[in-house]
Specification:
With 482 residues, the chain is mostly beta strands. It has helices spanning 436-439, 464-467; strands spanning 18-21, 50-54, 67-72, 79-86, 107-110, 119-124, 136-140, 142-143, 146-147, 152-154, 168-172, 181-186, 189-196, 201-207, 223-229, 238-244, 253-260, 266-273, 279-282, 291-296, 306-310, 322-325, 345-349, 358-363, 376-383, 386-395, 415-419, 428-433, 442-446, 460-462, 479-480. The N and C termini lie close together (7 Å). Keywords: Glycoprotein, Hydrolase, Repeat, Signal. One of its GO terms (molecular function) is hydrolase activity. One of its GO terms (biological process) is cell adhesion.
């Protein structure tokens, strides 16, 4: 997930990496020289699978212990008949489910050991160790039959109480070392785990960030998030760090691009000031440099929410190269109304198979008929000149072909995810409605086609009962692996 965090920033000059030993020393070695699997293909069959985090879910009567549910892709799309439920009480998983751990708060995926099957990282930001709310990560390795429950768990060495590492996660080969890494954020900083194939272990490369213009040397925690994509067009991903700090005298809302300086260091390539929210990174114009879309769902200065896109370039992102979209943009259905929360979540994928990324936008606060907060989702298309509102598609639970019906507080569109679950070359759309059935939650799956996702055909939805997990307050669909 993908998207929440709170690091402490320290005033100073340029930042370099500081390498420290980490507890993830049992990373499974590759069984062969297989080509690495794409993210979320846990059994290596070529179909993208879906991981759903339910950090508020109840496990063995423990509220907020959290769980992750997994359903596997197939020729017909996601197959809920083939599924897994992962908790900290699952046999082979380190630790134990405890109230308030919030296991499943964030998830990310990559083939870390290059065995041809993707692995899954799950965070528990409120996990206790010798200190309270330090946070931890659990890594589940892919196998031919799916995710293995013989998992490995670690925190970040030297973490402080209430550090809450794992509030956001993202994965990719950030240091161009030939193996996927993953980045994290927490209340006092951010960093990344780099897989070392020689040592067959993981290392942490931790960063403290400079804040130009900050008056103090120790600022209060700020809200931040980590994402990734190849913005510079280098052939490997960079980390996108978004943060806001209400006490800084400058750069109160920033998005910066961090690229590898060497195997152990990252350097900031560019920085822009922008209202921070959920981010999705994708190449909307087909120039082989990913663009950065930022969801800004609040009503301040842009009633109803908006999405701002910064164009990627060889030098990163720039203040002057931005475009904004809202429900008032030509071609986008509806109208901007206070509380719509357009941009509450974003995801990129090529739905119509034209070689350009499209953008799914969640708007969970939209009123549908008389149902306030029923919510909906949009699909905007990439074109040669970038993302456009022309031909944008809108769907709610009252749209023909979508299961169920729009109800007050469903929050349909609180999460969106695009991924090709049936391997037809077109991204399919998954939409979370964590408010469904008074907080039980639900997930709806809509197949991509040449025309986008409309008209809808073959869509289906499921709730906690599909996985035989506790529905009360589970908020299924609150986190979708993307």
């Amino acid at each position: 997930m993908r998207k929440r965090v709170l690091p402490r920033l320290v005033a100073g000059v340029a930042v370099t990496g500081c390498v420290g030993a980490l507890g993830l020393t049992a990373l499974a070695p590759a069984a062969s020289a297989a080509s690495p699997a794409k993210p979320y293909d846990f059994n290596g069959d070529g179909y993208r699978d879906l991981a759903i985090g339910s950090p508020n879910g109840k496990v063995s009567g423990k509220a907020g212990a959290g769980f992750v549910t997994v359903t596997y892709g197939s020729r017909g799309g996601l197959n809920t008949g083939k599924r897994q439920v992962l908790t900290q009480d699952t046999k082979g998983v380190p630790g134990a489910a405890e109230a308030g751990d919030h296991f499943g708060y964030a998830v990310t995926s990559a083939d870390f050991n290059r065995d041809g099957r993707a692995d899954l990282v799950v965070s528990s930001p409120d996990e206790d160790s010798s200190k309270k709310n330090v946070g931890s990560f659990t890594v589940f390795y892919g196998t031919k039959s799916g995710l293995s429950t013989h998992a490995y768990s670690s925190g970040v060495s030297g973490s402080s109480a209430n550090e809450r590492v794992g509030l956001s996660l993202t994965a990719g080969d950030f240091n161009h070392g030939g193996h996927a890494d993953f980045a994290y954020s927490g209340t006092y900083g951010w960093g990344w785990f780099a897989y070392d194939p020689g040592a067959r272990s993981a290392r942490a490369v931790q960063h403290r960030l400079a804040v130009p213009g900050a008056r103090s040397t120790a600022l209060s925690p700020v809200t931040a998030m980590v994402y990734s994509g190849d913005i510079l067009g280098l052939g490997y991903p960079q980390i996108v760090l978004a943060w806001r700090d209400p006490k800084s005298t400058q750069y109160r809302n920033d998005v910066s691009i961090w690229s590898a300086k060497n195997r152990d260091e990252l350097t900031m390539k560019s920085n822009v000031s922008a209202e921070v929210g959920p981010i999705a990174v994708g190449d909307f114009n087909g120039d082989r440099r990913a663009d950065v879309a930022i969801g800004q769902p609040g009503d301040g200065g842009h009633t109803g929410g908006r999405v701002t896109v910064f164009a990627g370039s060889v030098n990163g992102v720039h203040q002057w190269a931005q475009t904004s979209f809202s429900q008032n943009t030509a071609g986008i259905p509806g109208a901007s109304t206070a509380g719509n929360r357009f941009g509450a979540d974003l995801s990129v994928g090529d739905v119509n198979h034209d070689g350009k990324a499209d953008l799914a936008v969640g708007a969970p606060g939209v009123k549908v008929g008389s149902a306030g907060g029923a919510g909906g989702a949009y699909l905007l298309f990439g074109r040669a000149n970038g993302l456009t509102g022309t031909g944008a598609q809108w769907m709610s639970q009252d749209t023909a072909g979508v299961p169920g019906g729009a109800e007050r507080g469903d929050a349909f569109g609180a999460q969106v995810a695009l991924g090709d679950n049936n391997r037809d070359g077109r991204a399919d759309l998954t939409i979370g409605a964590p408010g469904e059935n008074r907080g039980d939650g639900s997930v709806t799956l809509i197949k991509g086609r040449a025309s986008g996702v409309l008209p809808i055909a073959g869509a289906f939805a499921f709730g906690p009962g599909t996985f035989k997990v506790s529905g009360k307050g589970a908020q299924l669909g609150l986190r979708l692996g993307d």
